[in-house]
Amino acid sequence: GATALRVRWRPLGPHAFRVDVADTTGAPVAAIDSVTTRPVTGGDVRRRSGGLLFVGWSPAPARPERDDRPAADVHWVTGDDPETVVAETVEALQRWLAADGEHPLVVATAHAVAAAPGDIVDLAQAPVWGLVRTAQNEHPGRFVLADVDDDPASRAAVAEAAG
What we know:
Layout: E1 5-11, E2 16-23, E3 28-36, H1 42-47, E4 73-76, H2 82-99, E5 105-110, H3 126-138, E6 143-148, H4 152-162
Parallel strand pairs: 4-5, 5-6
Antiparallel strand pairs: 1-2, 2-3
Helix pairs in contact: 2-3
């Protein structure tokens, strides 16, 4: 319920600090036993000027290079109702995990994320990104996430890259 905080950093060593947080009356709100820092150069800051995490748009090559990876299946996310879209995607992910195949499942959305300022996001497909990102963390290498625009070549590139 604090509306303002006082933060005290106490050095523990050359790159370590203890952090104590209190409200304006001095009552403790939080304490961090140790925070370790590392030096940052001006070049590091310039490279990260867009923030630590960001979504970027990378056009798919016209003809993806083939290698020895096994083919992947594509689950195209469709529908207008977010609840139905998410439920269908959960079922697809669960079926894929139960099948225990060798290759990943590509989950393809359309306009689920804004890749550039002014992009309009499809609110039925947007929750799928959070769902699949979580599944990727829980099952590394089992899922690939792709978002396409309205260009038919984008859909063709996803299908070709997967197959």
